[in-house]
Amino acid sequence: xxxxSLDGVTLEAIVTRLQAHYGWEQLAxxxxxxxxxxxxxxxxxxxxxxxxxxARKQVEDLYLATTFTH
Length: 70
Prior knowledge:
With 70 residues, the chain is an all-alpha fold. It has helices at residues 11-30, 34-37, 42-51, 53-65. Helix 3 crosses helix 4.
């Protein structure tokens, strides 16, 4: 079985896909960061995640652990 990889996947693509899959409310439940809780948007989330390595890792880990249906 192939291990999921982030090769070639942009942070914007990761956040966009997770948001489409879970919605902001469920993302905030899974990863407790303010950019998913208070007035969330792709743009504000990217700005925060690019400056915050620990939060970015949590988002990347959730992306790798998520089974997308489409």
